[in-house]
Amino acid sequence: MSKAVVPISGGLDSSVILSIATKLHDEVFAITYNYGQKHDKEILCAGTQVDCFSSNIEEHKIIDIQLFKDIASTSSLTNNDIPVAHAKDVLGDAQTVNYVPFRNMMMLSIACSYAETVGASRVFHGSALVDSQAGYWDGSIEFLKNINTLISLNRKNRIEIKAPLIHLSKKEIIKLGIDNKVKFEDTWTCYEGKEKACGYCTACSSRIQGFLQNNIKDPVEYERTDIPW
Description:
Shape: globular
Helix content: 25-40%
Structural class: alpha/beta
Strand content: 5-15%
Radius of gyration: 17 Å
């Protein structure tokens, strides 16, 4: 019986990954992190996505790691005094202010610990092609290779981290999600913690582009009014 751990943020990418994992594995253990992010609306969306693919999801844990608000005060996602960067402001930036220092490494370590506990041999990582293009080193292929090398030192429990979207564009990810019946209206991508998605931050911009390239209107509401759906 195959088991996997899926970190599900409630965002577009992780929701697509959850839809993939529930097809590939007999038992899926979902994990969501509350790390003090401004856009905590995504945590509610994570629960909705788990309900949508609940047939073989054994458990959904919400892990509180809000210590990030204390140790990662340089990020706009965890520091309310730092504005979220818009896509137009970060062109050529090697590492934007939206980056949360070592977030992915810590979250994947926790997920691997959980995987070892429940007897899962696979942990999924939500990195996509746009992440490394945007300067997130911990979303790169190199990061994936190296963290897998590190966890392979485990002498008893063999765990592999898989990132099925790491070579895919946002257009391709959305198409895959449509095929897997992901309810995109119940996902949250925007880095702002407002009622509607802003439409301007780096996360919103790549999402909007992906839907436009698929010739589909994003079912999520935006504050931005000039999107040519």
